[in-house]
Design a protein that fits this description.
It is a single chain. The protein is an alpha+beta fold. Helix content is 44%, strand content 22%. The protein is built from 9 helices and 11 strands. It has a 6-stranded antiparallel beta sheet with strand order 8-7-6-11-10-9, sandwiched between helices. A 3-stranded antiparallel beta sheet has the order 3-5-4. A two-stranded antiparallel ribbon has the order 1-2. Helix 1 crosses helix 3, helix 5 packs antiparallel against helix 9 and helix 7 (163-176) runs antiparallel to helix 8 (178-198). The relative contact order is 0.12.
């Protein structure tokens, strides 16, 4: 049974804090602005939580998107899930504040729904969204979630992952939804090839039949987390040629502008 910490008593009975939740929040609070990453021992020292418990909690927080794990160094950094806990908090974070005007200008210039997203639990969540005049078919707002495997935004996010994290995701997808796995495995691999070659990936009527989209990975590690830029629109207004020769290259240029504005070297493709 999980230990509890007494909070306060009231007419309706004692309220309690679940010990595991308290310790999990302590791990998240252990990160400081000048910490690029922390290992299990450092987290244990800062929180007073035993190292084996830290390891278990970090695995859970990583699975939920609140931490990112670097398998090569066995260290953790805060993940994008932290950003989606509240719109007010998100608005104050540099990556959203800096990206917003660029995204808004891009959306209105191209008549698309354009935004910035990251992973939250098992889906992609929009952190910032702007809608152009012709984008009524694709409505989204901050907090809107979309699938990972079947969307351009999700596939670009998977491209950002390290080999171990990517393999774990693909294995989990295969176990949890074999049909989705069969439908999207080859398409995910093709998206990786597109990003390697061109810097962006596209989907044509996959998640929604009448919606096409293009996405670009955006790396801002010292700001916290992994991000993706995406633009989407009605298939009639965003045909394949436009995705390939106009929107994709322009979104890639937008990612470079935002990276430079954040003081981050633009993403280099492998």
């Amino acid at each position: 049974m999980a230990r509890t910490t007494r909070a306060e008593s009231g007419d309706e009975g004692e309220q309690a804090l679940v010990g595991a939740l308290v310790r999990g929040m302590a791990i998240l609070r252990a990160f400081r602005p000048n910490d690029p990453s922390l290992g299990n021992q450092e987290l244990s020292d800062r929180t007073g939580v035993p190292k084996p418990t830290v390891s278990r909690l970090c695995r859970t927080l990583t699975a939920l998107g609140y931490l990112n794990h670097d398998a090569a160094t066995e260290r953790y950094e805060l993940g994008g899930g932290v950003l989606t806990l509240g719109h007010v908090a998100m608005a104050n974070l540099d990556v959203v504040r800096v990206a917003d005007p660029f995204i808004r200008e891009f959306a209105h210039a191209n008549g698309t729904t354009s935004g910035l997203g990251t992973r939250q639990e098992g889906r992609m969540a929009f952190l910032s969204v702007s809608m152009g005049s012709a984008s009524l078919a694709m409505r989204a707002r901050p907090g809107t979630r979309v699938p990972i495997a079947s969307t351009a935004m999700g596939r670009a996010y998977l491209w950002l992952l390290g080999e171990d994290e990517r393999r774990d995701f693909m294995r989990d997808l295969q176990r949890s939804d074999p049909e989705d796995w069969l439908a999207n495995r080859g398409r995910i691999e093709e998206a990786f090839r597109q990003i390697d070659s061109h810097g962006f990936c596209a989907t044509v009527g996959e998640w929604q039949n009448d919606i096409n989209a293009v996405a670009v990975p955006l790396s801002a590690p010292q700001v916290i987390g992994r991000y993706v830029l995406v633009c989407a629109g009605p298939a009639t207004r965003t045909p394949v040629d436009k995705l390939t020769f106009k929107l994709g290259p322009e979104l890639l240029a937008l990612a470079e502008k935002i990276s430079l504005a954040l003081g981050v070297a633009p993403m280099r493709r492998g």
